[in-house]
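Late entry, evening session. Most of the bench is empty. Finally got around to the prediction I had been postponing all week. Sequence below, unchanged from the version circulated by S.P.
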Amino acid sequence: MSWSSADLPVGRTAPLPPEGREDVSRLIRSGLIALGVVGALSLSACSGFTPVYGERGIAIERQAFQYAEPQTRLDQVIYQELVLRLGRSTDPGRPTVKITTSTRHRELTRSDVARPSEAREAVVTAQIEVTRADGTVLLKTTRSAAASYMTDSQALAVSEAEKAAYEQAAKSLADTIRLTLLGTLGQSGA
């Protein structure tokens, strides 16, 4: 017999001996069992937690708030971010979130050398108060966030950079406030 020609007709293969068939069926059976175990573990890992967002998330079910009127532009930025992430309730029985912001900036570099630009940091601080419809205070706290910016000799550029840094800090602060509200009020079931 040569390697180039086989003793079998075209399209036919030699049957496996009985011990070979048992090995193949055992291999297939083991593979299917392993696949079933991996699939079951994958599905069980997904069912143990409740997502924050989605149809059954705590943010949708329990944490839609009413919001006080903004007094400043930064208050408005924070409220908009919170409404976008948590939703707004029209139910008068839902808690009301009131945020009051204050701002300051500080120089990040101190030197006697004259420079064409200096690094500064814009800090936004928010007083947060969450009250029930009956006036009971559920949460009263303070949070801050900061964003850095550069100044130079152009007054308009400095003004715009400072304004952009304050808005960036306010958006970051809104995310911190959102997590504070979800963490604190989500545990209390308010």
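Two things to note before I forget:
Residues 58-108+119-188 form a domain with the Double Stranded RNA Binding Domain fold (CATH 3.30.160.150).
The two ends are 85 Å apart (CA to CA).
Will write this up properly tomorrow.
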